[in-house]
């Protein structure tokens, strides 16, 4: 039977007058989630000096002792203003839940029926205006056909699975605010603002208390000290609250406006570094993964714009060689802005004035030196980009004499060499008038062709050298080719299957070879066409739904808009990944010839430049040899590849230097029973093979003069060089043992037996940690260069009921140690204090390694396999999960390659993609902050600053 959470108001004399809400859910499945939701509704936006606005009864003890339980439930339902249903398959199957919902449907308004999904699926079918009952399993059938419009629901699946059940967690805070808003009679933003305001009121009240206590400082210095502490605590809490609110808003914006998400994440980190701000930074870096530069932010207000069609147009163009990027917006003062992609610098603007809106009005030549644009009244302007000079104006017709403003250029095309331009246009207001077709020489302005267009809505494309013009008439399903050297048209060619519509959406790839053609004006289905062969290459209902761009020299890529998002497709029109997103719809898209550079602009004037080769917050590292099957040592300093007889070796450089080939040795590395390590000076290789330790010169491949060390066997693969390079440490049957490479003798044994198998070394080589896999005991030692031996510094024990520990990791400076057990519970030990925190039981990633950020603030662990995967993030101070960093489609290694995720020399995370690429990814607040500041250095808008930071003194995060 479900449990009910009831909130109420009381009248005079304590009489219950009205309930704020009635929450019904599965007691067996959602008890913890329901309790957390109660606490969140109780706490959010509560005035500091008052009792909770919503009085919440948590369980059945709030009901009457009446033996007729259903009568008591009906009484509470009748007094409730809102019904909150925690949806799950278990709740949907509950008889009690169904009866409660049936009562509400019969007696109360549906606009006060709120849904919070804790498990299962809830999907809305837009076409049938009802839930999609083939996919929905979390709602009872009694709700079929009862809603006239899509009801409000929030998704709590992630917060329940990851146990993110605190208002400090951005996702849970957002869900509670969404549900609490109608109960409070406010919008979510108003409620969020009120919560911040109440916290700030608390800060001011505390500040007043500090002032009062300061008066008593003369008689009680101790009271003054306490007051100062309270003031500091109040200020700290206010900053934490503001940081959490900013981080929550950043996470909310990540999918719809990555630029603003980055701004809010940066300010959240600037106000106060919290787990939430780190999560927001990571998500913002992910959301901006393909961004080269946010060239221009969107205009906040569009209400004052009254242009043609009441839509503010934004146009973009990228030269085919990927050198120049041009953009224009109706919301600005009539200039075309230029950006040099190669140097990353803005170029002088072109003072063009208002440009046309009836065709693709900005066209760049292949080399970006010539810009052709549609000006007002059927005029074409030719600009020299380098000199920022208008070369000439070509008048197609006297457009100012046309009564209908929409009769501008119908189709507009520039040859790749920039020497010829063609356009179709109206020259008469007669209803039966046929558009005219003109071709001009851009160097002289001379007209090369003036005649009636072959079709009313034909679309044209000039070949690269400008000698031929292709006309595509989808109404007649034909193509015709005009030889501009002779002025003669070839015979019309019928193209079978070409969509027959009056105003097709056609996007050429820069020459007549390939084009995207939508089947109707809404572009709900389209295909790629090759007009050399006259055949459709592919067709898909899953292709772009908005404006589209095709790279001229890359037939395997299509870039298209889907509402507010910019999406990449392969040559078969299969969606591969989302490149970016905007607050408003995408109106303009352009791409370089090789498909690397993509520009897009939205209806609010926002413009961004993307790279399809970018990775999430990372840098592809150079490597002279194929590395698609190499492995890395746990310290990330050595890459190697073994066959049956030899091992090839590479040194991993710091920063972005990539791999340097060291040579090879005539011995294989057994990843199960052996290990390999590189000396600090990179002149020696230590090789452990079934209990025998030998040393090799990687340059010659010969065994070095250092004496070998032999033990009966080895019980683990751990092997590391210690500072100075004279000693190595590894795991043998007798325990963790230190070996002197000069004498070949064991100088120290750290453990009494070989039960400590998992071994890890800090990045500075000074700290060693190991875990007894059988019982979960953790040992930590530090190397003394003066004594040439390890000193024991800490013992700890892994948390949880599972004693099988699968991995251990040490932070770069040895400050913290982490282990993970077979239940995927992570234990984090502060080496200095001995404080231990643990995470919740995870989703089964126990076998994957753990890597600390350089500042020890975060711990990451890979998840997934194949093309789907990423990184889970954890707060090392609390053990709280901070969400996931999705790296799908970016070459994240699969499960079988998890050994390849290691701390990179010099900081960051080293990963090897399945495509053979080697990537160093930024890891940690400082690196993520630098990445985002390079993309979005603008300060927060005044309205947002006043809302979140009105009483706080906060510098702009990117000023330095």
Automatic annotation (TrEMBL):
InterPro entries, per the entry: Quinoprotein_ADH-like_sf, TIR_dom, Toll_tir_struct_dom_sf, WD40/YVTN_repeat-like_dom_sf, WD40_repeat_dom_sf, WD40_rpt, WDR55/POC1
Transmembrane segments: 209-228
Domain TIR: 18-163
Gene3D superfamilies recorded: Toll/interleukin-1 receptor homology (TIR) domain (3.40.50.10140), YVTN repeat-like/Quinoprotein amine dehydrogenase (2.130.10.10)
SMART domains xref list: TIR, WD40
Keyword S-adenosyl-L-methionine: no
Keyword terms: Membrane, Repeat, Transmembrane, Transmembrane helix, WD repeat
PANTHER family xrefs: POC1 CENTRIOLAR PROTEIN HOMOLOG, WD REPEAT-CONTAINING PROTEIN 55
Identification of the protein by name: TIR domain-containing protein
Organism: Streptomyces salyersiae
